[in-house]
Amino acid sequence: MQRLYDFLRRHPTWVDGFWAVILFGLSVVGGATTEESRGTELPALTVPVVLLLSLVVALRRRMPERMLVLALVTGLAQLVLDVATGPADFALLVIVYTVAAVGARWASRVALAAGLCAAPLAQLRWPSPHSGTFENVALSIILAVPFALAWVLGDSIRTRRAYFAQLEERAARLEKEREAQAKVAVAAERARIARELHDVVAHNVSVMVVQADGAAYVLDAAPDQAKKALETISGTGRQALAEMRRLLGVLRTGEHQEAGEYVPQPGLQQIEDLVEQCRESGLPVDFKVEGTPRELPRGVELTAYRIVQEALTNTRKHGGPNAGASVRLVYFDDGLGLLVEDDGKGAPHELYEEGGFDGQGHGLIGMRERVGMVGGTLDAGPRPGGGFRISALLPLKPAH
User: What is the dihedral of CA 296, 298, 300, 304, to 10 degrees?
Assistant: First the structure.
């Protein structure tokens, strides 16, 4: 049954053609029977008129505007040629409904006007001999009601279809917007993960590499220093693993866990530990805090920590063997200032101007992204007297 219904929906002209054949048969056979009972013959023009009106029904959905014109011409021919109304004139109701539902707006208005005029014109052309003027007027009004109802029904169908089409369009647009938002969210999450991985891996691995090189250099001459370097490598590796577990925990659960297996994200209090780690790895670092320390939003604290971490990592990578660094934290009333400088040879120009080449320069890119996310400003570049400088200003908001 469902297949038959789907077939009929896919071939509406066949359905209309079937009803057109039924209408043609009822009109011709019924008209012939009526005329035979009266002792007369079926008028010669009746069959062409019935055929044209049946054609209107058959092609109403394929060519609604043209079939409306054909129906109007056929109706006027009936009036002029004195072909009395019959069952085939039901096609006028059908075409009025069809044009109101699927036809052009001008055709819908014409169909309404023609439908309201059809009944009065028919009463004027073929008045009832046994009825007075009042009865004919009343009958005209009554016969005009079906045309008005057919038009109202078709127009309501048009409005409903337009409403559902608008809903479908809105749903499709919302779906596209959701997909776009999902893609943006995925890109942002990938960038965040990339920043975290870079900060964790680059800093800790660089410390381990420096310590390993130092241990290999003094292994025979100074075993105690080599042992201390190996202990630093071990501690740095454990710290890297702890941060990796934290990051993996965030990826699995979608939220930051501050207890249990996963360690919390680092903040300003861990900067001193970071500086001490760098000192133990052989990088002299001068650390000062100015202003009144206060509790800051977690995002700001993590941003500040990562900036200092990346800056010291870059000093170790690009500053040279005798480079030293200084870290300044300045608490303003409405912002936190960061200044990290070194007296080394500085990073290559392309790493801080163009964002890197051949996959390099991700640390500075991550710094700018982090600072931009909290609404701050970042300036990175070589110092006039040599070395490299990174300064940032992060807006402060009371932590709740």
Answer: 100
Look at strands 335-342 and 377-382 and give their pairing: unpaired
In this prediction, residue 347 carries a pLDDT of 58
174-211 b/e (C-beta count within 10 Å ≥ 16 → b): eeeeeeeeeeeeeeeeeebeebbebbbebbbebbbebb
Spatial neighbors of 80 by CB under 8 A, at least 6 apart, are: none
Helix 12-38 × helix 46-58 angle, to 10°? 160
In 3-state terms, what secondary structure has residue 103?
coil
Per-residue pLDDT tens digits for 311-340 = 888 887 777 778 889 999 999 888 899 999
**Long-range contacts, stretch 74-82, CB < 8 angstroms, 24+ apart:** 74/49, 75/114, 75/118, 77/49, 78/49, 79/121, 79/122, 79/125, 81/45, 82/125
What pLDDT, on a 0 to 100 scale, did the predictor assign at position 157? 93
- Helix and strand tally (H, E) in the chain? 12, 5
CB 108 within 8 A of CB 66: no
Whole-model pTM over 0.85 = no
CA–CA dist 146, 139 (Å, integer): 12
Question: CA 75, CA 58: separation in Å to the nearest integer?
Answer: 17
Beta-bridge partners for 278: none
pLDDT digits (tens, 9 = 90+) for 165-198: 999 999 889 888 888 888 887 777 677 777 666 6
Is the predicted pLDDT of residue 265 greater than 90, yes or no? no
- Give the C-alpha distances (Å, rounded to integers) separating 28 from 33, 34, 171, 177: 8, 10, 50, 59
| Identity of the residue numbered 223 | P
Coil, strand or helix at 284: coil
Q: Interior CA angle at 184 toward 179 and 188, to 5°?
A: 145
Between vectors from CA 373 to CA 367 and to CA 378, what angle results, nearest 5°? 40
Chain-centre distance of CA 305, in angstroms?
35
The domain segmentation of the chain, as residue ranges, is: 2-126, 283-400
| CATH code for the part of the protein at 283-400 | 3.30.565.10
Contacts of 393 (CB under 8 A, 6+ apart): 335, 336, 337, 338, 376, 377
- CA angle 395–277–193, rounded 5-degree value: 55
